[in-house]
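hey so i finally got around to running the thing on that chain from the lab meeting. sorry it took forever, my laptop kept dying and i had to restart like 3 times. anyway pasting the input first so we r on the same page abt which one it is
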Amino acid sequence: MNRIIIKGRLTRDPELKTGGSGVEFCKFTVAVDRKFSKDKTKDRQADFFDCTAFGNTGVAISHYMAKGREILVEGRMESSTSEKDGQKRTFWGVTVESFDFCGPKPDGQAAAAPAEAPAANFTSVETDELPF
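ok and heres what got predicted. didnt touch it at all, straight out
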């Protein structure tokens, strides 16, 4: 079973792109805090997860999320390899299958979604209403 659930903050605004086959996808990075005890001090460190969300899920993330917003992401870990200067490198990332909003809404954000925003597909079930 390959399943990962992370909760953290976006390190930058999500980037919405369109692939060669016309499928939209969104790339973003999530920083997840972890407590680390070094020499009996409580330093905070973070792990950074590169995430990719496809289709309506990616579109919704690009419209409703921004740098610093807290997000809960569920998906699967995937690896890819590349070769540079004769050295083979492996990269790991999260392919997002669903997400949820976390934390308070940013100041000034209305309770309803903007009219121009697309309908979201949060759990692979089409819906005309947003779950907040």
